[in-house]
């Protein structure tokens, strides 16, 4: 873990920020080489995605490779001693596919639609 692992997430999303803020606080307390980057205030280009794509799911940049969705969570969890067990379990054949399907087809789209509604409300409330 000598190289920073960078995590791109939507800090404006209550669900995303709740989970990632928890990881970020623990990583900071443990002095782990993890950088948590808000897609609303940073450049998503190093991840190879647009801002809109980044709003659709979690992305992790680790050792020059970009991982999205459940694969990104697995890489993140592998970097944190207390969640390595979770990475191993979710990474098991069958479980990984089921978790990916659930995240990609249910969880991430719901959170993204919530994100779009929040943005629309913010635009509508501006003078």
Give the topology, please.
Layout: E1 5-9, H1 14-29, E2 34-38, H2 51-56, E3 59-62, E4 65-68, H3 70-78, H4 84-90, H5 95-125
Parallel strand pairs: 1-2
Antiparallel strand pairs: 1-3, 3-4
What does this structure look like?
By secondary structure, this protein is of the alpha+beta class. It has one domain. The chain contains five helices and four strands. The chain has helices spanning 14-29, 51-56, 70-78, 84-90, 95-125; strands spanning 5-9, 34-38, 59-62, 65-68. Helix 3 runs antiparallel to helix 4. The longest helix has 31 residues, at 95-125. The model has no long low-confidence stretch (mean pLDDT 94). This is Thiol-disulfide oxidoreductase DCC.
Helix amount: 40-55%
Which H/E pattern describes the elements?
A: EHEHEEHHH
- The backbone outline, from C-alpha atoms, is globular
Arithmetic mean pLDDT: 94
Strand content: 5-15%
Oligomeric state of this protein: single chain
Could you name the ranges where pLDDT drops below 50 across 5 or more consecutive residues?
none
**Count of extended strands:** 4
Q: How would you characterize the largest beta sheet?
A: 4 strands, mixed
């Amino acid at each position: 873990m000598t190289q920073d692992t960078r995590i791109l997430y939507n800090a404006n999303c209550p669900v995303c920020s709740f989970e990632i803020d928890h990881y970020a606080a623990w990583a900071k307390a443990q002095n782990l080489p993890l950088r948590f980057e808000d897609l609303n205030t940073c450049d998503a280009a190093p991840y190879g995605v647009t801002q809109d794509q980044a709003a659709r799911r979690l992305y992790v940049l680790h050792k020059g490779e970009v991982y999205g969705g459940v694969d990104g969570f697995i890489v993140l969890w592998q970097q944190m001693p207390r969640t390595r067990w979770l990475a191993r379990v979710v990474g098991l054949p069958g479980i990984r596919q089921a978790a990916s399907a659930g995240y990609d087809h249910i969880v991430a789209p719901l959170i993204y639609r919530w994100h779009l509604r929040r943005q629309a409300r913010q635009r509508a409330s501006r003078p």
